[in-house]
From TrEMBL:
This is LamG domain-containing protein. GO terms for molecular function: hydrolase activity, hydrolyzing O-glycosyl compounds. It comes from the Bacteria. One of its GO terms (biological process) is carbohydrate metabolic process. The lineage of its organism: Bacteria, Pseudomonadati, Bacteroidota, Bacteroidia, Bacteroidales. InterPro entries: ConA-like_dom_sf (IPR013320). It comes from Phocaeicola dorei.
Amino acid sequence: SSFMLPATLQDNAPYTLEAWVLNDSISENECVADFTTSHDELEKIMLVNGTEPRCGVINHYGWYEDAGYKDMKELAGKWQHIYICFDGRMEQVYINGKLVSEKDIQLLVKPSQFITLGRNAEGDWPFTGYLHSLKLWDEYLPLKE
């Protein structure tokens, strides 16, 4: 991209991320969008659509802080509504309205040089599916049921 992550999304700032994704053949690690260029632990907001149970939905370059979905392979060929909201302490990850992860986490997001779509900032983890929409807010917007 020709723009970077806004300053309001640095450090441990609240955020909400929403995407509609369709992927016919979900592999282990497929990056839909990488919002940061950092390589350091907890400095990453990366939307993933992969079968990796530890970090297959959201990756922060942490271990505990990342989130996957053990049944992701079952969503191949189906539209997925991915909704992630973080209030500065708790992060909730939803897929098609189902809460798949809720954790108390700490992030250290640093200024980013650019945003990458379809692979991570390093050029790895290519996304093989379709992205209908992608939204990122610099505030906590809990999912309305």
